[in-house]
Each structure stands twice: as C-alpha cells, then as structure tokens.
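Can't paste images in this forum, so I'm doing it all in text. The chain is below; anyone willing to post the predicted structure tokens underneath?
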Amino acid sequence: MSLILQLKTIPDPRGTRGRRYELRLILFLSVFGSLCGYWGYRPLAEFAREHHQAWCDLLKLDASTTPIPSYSTFRQVFLKVDAQGWVDAFNAWAMAHAPDWLGQLSVDGKSIKCTSTGGQEAGHDFASLVSVYGQSVGVVQLALMFNHKESEIAVARRLLQHVINAPEFAKTLPVCVSLDALHTQVETLSLLERSQTPYLIGLKTNQRQLYALAKRLYEQTIPTDIVTEYDATHSRQVQRTVKVYPVPESLPQRWANAGIRHLVWIQREGRRDGQPFHEAHCYLSNRCLNAETYMTQIQAHWHIENGLHWVKDVTFQEDDPPRRGGHAPISWAVLYSFFITLARKLSYQTIPQAMRALANRLDKVFPLLT
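Text version of the structure:
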C-alpha cells in the first residue's frame, strides 16, 4: 500500500463546515515537505506555496483548482489528528519499502518528555515510541505506547512478533535481535527461540537467580573464548574484553525453552573524560558464536541510541520541541522517524548531510513515498 492510500484511512477529526482540503493531502504534504527540508507549520505552508505546481503535477492534480494550504491548516491537523494514525502510516510505508537485508535489529523505547503529565507522581503518564531499528535500514517498525496503559515489555514483544511473522520481512531474517535487560523475560526469549531468530539480550539483577548464576561463572570459571580490543577515539582510552561461557546444566527450569546457549560478559576499563572507570555487563545469546562476533553485536546494539535516539534529541529537539499541543509532539516524532529511516536507506553518513542533500529535492523524495 502506498503512503497516500494509507493516509486516506486516518479518520478526519475536523468539522465538516469550512473543510477545504482533503485530510490525506495535508498529511501527505506534511511528510513530503518535511523530508524536503521544511520543518514546522509555516515552513510547510511555504513548501506548499513555492512548489504548488510541482506537487500538483506529481499527484496528478489540477493546479488551477487545487488550493494552497495555509499555516493554520497544517497546525490544526497536527493538533487534532490522532498520532496512532501517523504510526500506522509509517509502518505501512516501512513494510512497502522493506529492505532486502535487515542486518542486526535493536529494539528500544524512547519517551517523549514533553508529553509527560502528573509530575513526579508514581502514576504519571507520558508517550513513548518503541522502535525496531537497524543501523543501515533505519526504523523497521514503530509502536506508540502510553506509560499508564501498557509496559514496554509487552509492546516490544508484539513488535518483534509482527516483524518475525510479516511476509515482507520473511525473505531475510535479522542477523541478530538485540534488546536491553528490561526485556530479559521468559516469554520474549522463547518467542525468538521458537522462530529461530538469533538474539543478544542484556542481563541484570531484574532476573536475580539467572544473574547470580552468570556472575558465579564470570568469577569462578575459565571462559571458552576471549577477545580484547583497545579504543582510543573520542578522547577516551578504553579496553574491552569479551568472555564467553556455555550455559551450565544448573540453568533454572523456567528458562528451559528460552534457548539460552551462551552467557557473554563484556568488561570495560580505562579512562573516560579524564576519569578512570571499570564496569562489566552480561548478555544472553541463543547462538554459539565466538567472542569477536559477540563484541561486534554488543557494540552494534548501541546504534539505536547513537543513530536514532540521540539524533531525535539533539538534531530534532524531540524532547523539547517548539511545536506543542494536542497530538503534535508525537506526530512530529513519527516524522523524524520517517526522515532518519529515509537517510539510512539512502546511505547518508549523517543526518545533517541527508538534510542538505534532500532539501527541495522533490524529484528524489517523491518516488520513495509512493
């Protein structure tokens, strides 16, 4: 399904009186204009005005009878349209443009801080976007989550099941699915093992019995494989050591169907920002790989932080956006996912480079949206 057809399924919250524009047209121009470098309501109105004839030709519309949306039209749509519709549209677009190679996928949630309500109270609520992300393919699928309604564990599991079972992705299984320790749950690991999906998942004290077993191995047992590397980039001096241990027979029975085959410890030590540090973290894997491969997968997991979350925070100011109110912060967050994914698919090294290259390039952006 093309993006514009998916946008047609989003309910129109506007009143019928004075409605001059089809909702799907405004939504499509919002995505199209943003990807061409027009971020914001007034910039989108400028895009619609300056490129009126061009987008009418691309959409096969009569420019003489197609009006130009104003700043307030774009703003009202972002305030009122349910953000879940944007998420569904993104997922349909991502499915239609599924890559031939997924590589390693990381799953993690990112809260949108400006949506937080309830202050510091235990029941405070906020919106999050949970993403399945690949370093070279961008965001594969998205899910919108509200803190008081659902946990990230359940949302991530649902996303994983969708990606694993989708025919569009079945042609290329991920090299590995990596998650942080929050998702070290029997149900999640068993789901990945049943589908024969390789995983690498962090382990912390949230699973006390399993973590205690892993720590005893780390402290008392000789690893079956070990590799060390040195990193002197970004004003730091770090030595990383990965040690691999086979799972012992004393593994708790409740994990029997999770497919855990290796316990992997990574030890980091050195100097960071001029200060000495030493830390060790544990991971679980359902594959029997060597220490060097695990080193690569552990480092690749952090691409979701550096290549997605950091970009949204710093480049797009997602947590403290200039455009607020209604559904706008979440809707704009989805548009940032559109752009980041497009930039990764086109192999741009950085997001600013992609912004410069795609600015006003309607001819380059439009075919990727249809």
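The radius of gyration is 23 Å. The chain has two domains: 3-86+320-368, 87-312.
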